[in-house]
């Protein structure tokens, strides 16, 4: 497990790509900051595409979990360790400065035990058996293509089994805000304020950014709801204007 914030994660891209190619588990925590360059320590979600599309030179995916509270930072970190172990794949907690510097109550509960596969690939010494090899370099004809198809099948399994999201007042909503992480937390307050004024507003919050809850999002969109995708600044603005509107 390791952690950093944005530019530090950028410097890790070669190592993360090697891990994915070698099918090695590991957890990376990114408390992302505003950029470009060293930027500042203010909240940002500029790392989204890097995290969800595979950084480095691509052709891989990470499991990406987006907490919206200190409690979820704890719970999702426990889950990320297990998912990384289960799939032999790097996992990332994608937070931001709001979560990284927040103080609130935390319940240290024991996570649900996941049935993890045996680590018959682990490099424990080859005494009395054929040695294992972990590599990400495939130079023979068709070898890399075969390996990439193997990784693709693993990512497809993640999409089927590991999607996680939250729906908040979406059943009768005429407008649904789609947001993750800190902005979803801000947006939830806006939804509550709007509901108090009789507005049918809801929230759709992806918790797994990869695998993304695409099917669930499309089902909501097909119900003739309007989806409003927010970034962090927009979420704060929505909260401000909702508060002003309800006050008036």
What is the averaged pLDDT score? 89
**Percent of residues in beta strands?**
15-25%
Rounded radius of gyration (Å): 20 Å
CATH A-level architecture of the largest domain: 3-Layer(aba) Sandwich
User: Describe the biggest sheet?
Assistant: 6 strands, mixed
CATH level 1 name of the largest domain:
Alpha Beta
Overall helicity: 40-55%
Supply the CATH superfamily name of the largest domain: Thiamin diphosphate (ThDP)-binding fold, Pyr/PP domains
N-to-C order of helices and strands: EHHEEHEHEHHEEHEEHEH
Task: List descriptors.
248 residues; alpha/beta; Rossmann fold; 9 helices; 10 strands; 41% helix; globular
Describe the structure.
With 248 residues, the protein is an alpha/beta fold. The chain has two domains: 2-104 and 141-161, Rossmann fold (3-Layer(aba) Sandwich), CATH 3.40.50; 166-247, Rossmann fold. Helix content is 41%, strand content 19%. It has nine helices and ten strands. The chain has helices at residues 7-11, 13-22, 48-52, 70-87, 97-100, 143-161, 181-196, 214-221, 232-247; strands spanning 2-4, 26-34, 40-43, 63-65, 90-96, 165-168, 175-178, 201-206, 208-210, 226-229. Strands 1, 2, 3, 4, 5 and 9 form a six-stranded mixed sheet that branches. Strand 7, helix 7 (181-196) and strand 8 (201-206) form a beta-alpha-beta unit. Helix 7 (181-196) runs parallel beside helix 9 (232-247). The chain is globular. The N and C termini lie far apart (49 Å). The mean pLDDT is 89.
């Amino acid at each position: 497990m390791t952690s950093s914030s944005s530019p530090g994660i950028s410097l890790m891209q070669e190592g993360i790509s090697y891990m994915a190619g070698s099918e090695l588990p590991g957890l990376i925590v990114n408390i992302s900051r505003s950029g470009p360059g060293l930027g500042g320590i203010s909240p940002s979600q500029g790392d989204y595409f890097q995290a969800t599309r595979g950084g480095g030179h691509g052709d891989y995916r990470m499991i990406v979990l987006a907490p919206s509270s200190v409690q979820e930072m704890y719970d999702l970190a426990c889950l990320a360790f297990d998912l990384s172990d289960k799939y032999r794949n790097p996992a990332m907690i994608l937070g931001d400065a709001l979560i990284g510097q927040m103080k609130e109550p935390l319940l240290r509960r024991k996570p649900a035990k996941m049935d993890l596969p045996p680590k018959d690939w682990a490099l424990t010494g080859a005494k009395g058996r054929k040695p294992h090899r972990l590599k990400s370099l495939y130079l023979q004809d068709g070898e890399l293509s075969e390996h990439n198809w193997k990784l693709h099948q693993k990512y497809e399994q993640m999409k089927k089994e590991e999607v996680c999201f939250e729906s908040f007042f979406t059943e009768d909503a005429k407008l649904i805000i789609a947001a993750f992480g800190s902005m979803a937390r801000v947006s939830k307050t806006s939804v509550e304020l709007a509901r108090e004024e009789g507005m049918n507003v809801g929230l759709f919050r992806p918790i797994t950014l990869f695998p993304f809850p695409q099917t669930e999002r499309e089902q909501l969109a097909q119900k003739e709801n309007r989806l409003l995708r927010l970034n962090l600044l927009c979420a704060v603005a929505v909260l401000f204007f909702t508060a002003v509107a309800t006050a008036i």
